[in-house]
Amino acid sequence: MAKILVVDDSPADLRFLTEALAPTGHSVVSCTDAKEVERLVETERPDLALLDVVMPERNGYETLRALRRMPAAAGMKVIFVSSKGAESDVKWGLRQGAVDYLIKPYTPAQLTTLLGRHL
């Protein structure tokens, strides 16, 4: 089983993601503050991160760029999870280094399919 880091500033979205992941058997670590991500990656060493794009203080793109500079994040896959679903948003997210892009609202089945593709 994999370890998944979930990052979203919305407690409701964080809860939905965590509950959608529960039946998968993967272990889940979550946070609502993008500034905590590096510390969690250092201590938890997740296999994959589900990263919101629109967050206060530091967006998901900036967070991913910071992670790419960390040895502890080497090999960790990132999937953006965002309400920004225009084709240009998706292309930009993938160009930033994400392996996939999940557009809100989504179903638990869509999330499970993505995890199956990348884990």
UniProtKB/TrEMBL annotation:
Protein name from the UniProt record: Response regulator
Keyword Kinase: no
High-level lineage: Bacteria, Thermotogati, Deinococcota, Deinococci, Deinococcales
Domain Response regulatory positions: 3-119
Keyword Phosphoprotein: yes
Residue positions, PTM 4-aspartylphosphate: D52
Keyword vocabulary terms for this entry: Phosphoprotein
A family per Pfam: Response_reg
Cited InterPro entries: Bact_response_regulator, CheY-like_superfamily, Sig_transdc_resp-reg_receiver
Transmembrane segments: none
